[in-house]
Automatic annotation (TrEMBL):
It is found in: Cell membrane. InterPro entries: MFS, MFS_dom, MFS_trans_sf. The chain crosses the membrane at residues 41-64, 71-91, 97-118, 130-152, 158-180, 192-213, 219-237, 257-281, 293-311, 323-341, 353-372, 393-413, 425-450. It comes from Amycolatopsis thermoflava. It holds the Pfam family MFS_1. Residues 6-454 form the Major facilitator superfamily (MFS) profile domain. The keyword Transferase does not apply. Keywords: Cell membrane, Membrane, Transmembrane, Transmembrane helix, Transport. GO terms for molecular function: transmembrane transporter activity. Signal peptide: none annotated. This is Putative MFS family arabinose efflux permease.
Length: 473
């Protein structure tokens, strides 16, 4: 296989699947206005992509081995492109959310299939280049997403946020025959689709309950929550009894790894929801254009990229537990700094807080790199998939949680006669405080999870640590 073409396909795939996590945020206000969607429905434009991505990711990795790279990538790219086109032409909230679900399902297949190209098509030197390129593309997508979404929304219409995916898909499809093999892995185990459907359905119900909680905490809202928790409990029981559980028992018993998953979940619950609602706050309360609303978030990505190269030296000096702890506390400080000045309708006072959020997020890199180093090599793929899935899950649930806080506070202020803008700003401040509390809880947990010497095994070569560092996880 041609190494140059492989690297190009991997780079394009890394960029476009990450871009779809961030590009929508700046276009949400325009989407809501044109389609007459309320805040709860708008949250599902983001959650609808992230939850299927997280829920199907582990099973999708197994299916790559059973179906072959070319079949998996080809089907995933076609589905991703069709979802993008459907999203761009959507005339109702239901159609738009359905299109996002299709894209999320497709992304769950694309990511493990793309990563498998690094292992099968490249030698060790080229693989290192590929991992670096993957990281760079993720970082660029993270930095450009909100601004690009605002630019497209303001000058071309929000539909082009989704249409912009199509050129990437077409180029990758053209290059596919020269990069992806048709062979299947012999003896590949059967995917645990039943377990995946069970846990994904449970998570969807829990997210639905959280999204609906902000408007009116009635007894009816408890039904999806209880149903979702019941499905997740059923999944846990099945896992305990399964001969080959979806999550190997060795990983479950590894304190550092399970601790990393939990800390990463707390990080995402706090930060991801805030990022989703920030462009909305900037447009609604600060009166910024879509481009101006997304532009300040670039500071977070710039801070992440600036601090990340220094993380190995900091970790050597402080140890992974203190490095992650300090990082999460810095993130919390940044969130509180924005909360303190949120009543000021200007962008410059927010900039120091945004820089702190990015710098602190970069220091959480050991959540992935250190936890992957102490696991056994035979679990590398599953562990990487779990870390990726937990990141997407935390992002989806973060949007739901912070949205519930923001909606509840805004509804209370409106009942008091407050105007829409001030009411939204008050809810956003409450969301920042809740997010900071989650980061502090994660910092405390990190000290426990990473404490003491960990069992050391052969280092695992994976691109997951690079991916997470580019996102600040």
């Amino acid at each position: 296989m041609n190494a140059g073409r492989t690297l190009l396909v991997v780079a394009l795939g890394a960029f476009v699947t990450t871009l779809d996590n961030t590009i929508v945020a700046a276009g949400v206000p325009s989407i809501g206005h044109d389609l007459s969607l309320d805040l709860a429905t708008l949250q599902w434009v983001s959650i609808g992509y992230m939850l299927p991505f997280a829920g199907l990711l582990l099973a999708a990795g197994t299916l790559v081995d059973r179906w072959g790279q070319r079949g998996t990538l080809g089907g995933g790219l076609v589905a991703f492109g069709l979802g993008a086109v459907a999203g761009g032409f959507a005339t109702t909230g239901a159609l738009l959310i359905a299109a996002r679900v299709v894209q999320g399902l497709a992304a769950a297949f694309l990511v493990p299939a793309l990563l498998s190209l690094l292992r099968t098509n490249l030698d060790s030197r080229q693989r290192a280049i590929g991992a670096t390129l993957w990281t760079a593309c993720l970082a660029v997508a993270l930095a450009l997403g909100p601004t690009l979404g605002g630019l497209l929304s303001e000058y071309f219409g929000w539909s082009w946020i989704f249409f912009s995916n199509v050129p990437f898909v077409l180029v990758m499809l053209v290059l596919l025959p020269a990069t992806a093999g048709t062979g299947r892995v012999r003896g590949a185990r059967r995917p645990a689709l039943g377990a995946m459907v069970l846990v994904t359905a449970g998570l969807v119900l829990v997210a639905a309950a959280m999204v609906g909680l902000g408007d009116d905490a009635r007894l009816a809202e408890a039904a999806p929550l209880l149903g979702g928790l019941a499905l997740i409990a059923w999944f846990a029981v099945r896992e305990r009894r399964a001969r080959e559980p979806l999550v190997p028992r060795e990983l479950v018993r590894e304190r550092v790894f399970t601790g990393a998953l939990a800390v990463q979940l707390l990080w995402g619950l706090g930060v991801s929801g805030i990022f989703f609602f920030t462009p909305l706050l900037h447009q609604d309360s600060l009166g910024l254009s879509p481009v101006g609303a997304g532009l300040p978030l670039v500071l977070v990505a710039v801070a992440i990229m600036a601090v990340t190269p220094a993380v190995p030296r900091i970790m050597t000096r402080l140890g992974p537990h203190r490095t992650v702890c300090v990082g999460l506390l810095v993130v919390a400080l940044g969130l509180l700094a924005v909360a303190v000045i949120n009543h000021i309708p200007e962008v410059p006072p927010r900039m120091p807080g945004l820089l702190l959020i990015g710098a602190g997020s970069a220091l959480t890199t050991p959540l992935t790199s250190y936890s992957l180093e102490i696991i056994e090599e035979r679990h590398a793929g599953t562990a990487s998939g779990l870390l990726t899935a937990s990141r997407e899950l935390s992002s989806a649930m973060g949007v739901a949680l912070i949205g519930a806080v923001l909606t509840a506070v805004r509804a209370a202020r409106l009942d008091e006669g407050a105007l829409g803008g001030p009411a939204l700003a008050t809810g956003y401040t409450a969301g920042l405080i809740v997010a900071a509390a989650l980061e502090i809880a994660g910092a405390v947990l990190a000290l426990w999870a990473f404490r003491g010497p960990a069992r050391k095994v052969l280092p695992v070569v994976t691109t997951e640590s690079a991916e997470s560092s580019s996102r600040g996880e």
